[in-house]
Amino acid sequence: MSSSRDRVEDTYEIQNDSRLDELHSKLRTLRGVTTDIYEDVESQNQTLDGTRNTFQSFGASLAQSSRRASQAFGLGPGDSIRLSHLVSLLSLVSSFRSWLFFCNILGS
After folding, report:
1. What letter does residue 5 receive in the DSSP assignment?
2. How many CA atoms lie within 13 A of 6 on its CB side?
3. Secondary structure class of 75 (helix, strand, coil)
4. Which of 3, 67, 84, 95 has the fewest CB atoms within 10 Å, counting from its CB?
């Protein structure tokens, strides 16, 4: 009777060990996925920071160009705002076209 009971306990121990190994394997996989997600998020944050810095620099440069153009053409305060809007609009259109161009290249 004791021998039968020992075999059942051994069977349960083997099953438990097998299940623990499966669980450990799943946890390793989950940790790998979590690490990959973290690294991807960090990379995207760096890209966003770089993009923000680029646009801030572009905005400052655009404002300075607008002021210079206003001075060069002798435009008044109201005229410089319209010129600034025009330059901004042309820059946005150009940026959008560049973005479409690169999306088409990357999508191909």
Report:
1. H
2. 3
3. coil
4. 3
* CA dist list (Å): 75 to 60, 64, 83, 90, 91: 20, 15, 9, 19, 20
d(CA 96, CA 88): 12
SS3 49: helix
Residue pair 66/83 in contact by the 8 Å Cβ criterion: yes
45-78: per-residue pLDDT in tens?
Answer: 999 999 888 888 888 887 888 778 777 766 666 5
Written as one string, the DSSP assignment of 91-103 is HHHHHHHHHHHHH
CA distance 91 to 55: 11
